[in-house]
Amino acid sequence: MSRRITLATFGHEHDALTAAAELRRHGFQLIDVYSPHAIHRMDEVLGLKPSRLTWVCFVCGAVGAIGMLWFQHWASAVSWPINVGGKPWNSLPAEVPVAFEMLVLLAAFGSVLAFFAVSRLFPGKRPDASARGATDDKYVIAIDESPGASDAVTLDQLLCAHGVAEVRERIVEEERWT
Questions:
Q1: Which of 18, 29, 52, 61 measures 20 to 30 Å from 101, CA to CA?
Q2: What is the pTM of this model?
């Protein structure tokens, strides 16, 4: 099944932010906003929930640190205890730097892999070039225009009031947006 969307291109960040807020206030369904950088407060305007990526990072880091502390204790005190100058076999201060490095490593890898999984970025994925210029210097708002979802006259008035540079309509396959 195909879906009809409107792509409104803006030249300035502020215009895109105010237009998105005004469109949401009038009941239009915004699919996404494409921009060359993150726009402050755009997540609030789009009604997005806070990211759970921080929790993924915390859990992966905790697993890395605890796992490395356990492994170092096992290796130095259980599996291969060596008495060196009367020092204890399980010296926590000696194990902290390596545990910290493992914490950082697993937190970073876990966050990146979780981001790729949630964003559905995988090898061989075909790029969607619907928002041309959004990675350079344009700000593009994708608006749902399925039957009953929007009023074309009100949409045109709102976009013109906020200084839209270009408006394009596209028909895309439904599976790309689910």
A1: 52
A2: 0.69
Closest to 141 (Cα-Cα) out of 133, 153, 131, 127: 131
Rounded to an integer, what is the distance from CA 112 to the centroid of its chain? 10
Q: Where exactly does CATH 3.30.70.120 map onto the chain?
A: 2-36+133-176
Query: Of 44, 1, 15, which Cα lies nearest the Cα of 166?
Result: 15
Which range (12-21, 60-69, 106-115, 120-129) has the least confidence? Answer: 120-129
- Determine contact, residues 130/7, Cβ cutoff 8 Å: yes
**Domain 2-36+133-176, CATH number (from 3.30.70.120, 3.40.30.10, 3.30.479.20, 3.30.460.10):** 3.30.70.120
**22 HSE (CA, 13 A, CB side):** 16
Q: Give the C-alpha separation, 103 to 70, whole Å.
A: 13
Q: Can you tell me whether residue 105 is helix, strand or coil?
A: helix
Going by their DSSP bridges, the two strands 2-10 and 30-34 should be labelled as: unpaired
Residue 141 has a CB neighbour count (10 Å cut-off) of 31
| H-helix or E-strand spanning residue 13 | helix 13-25
Q: Which two tokens stand for residue 31?
A: 């699919």
**Three-state SS for 160?**
helix
The C-alpha atoms of residue 41 and residue 45 are separated, in whole angstroms, by 6
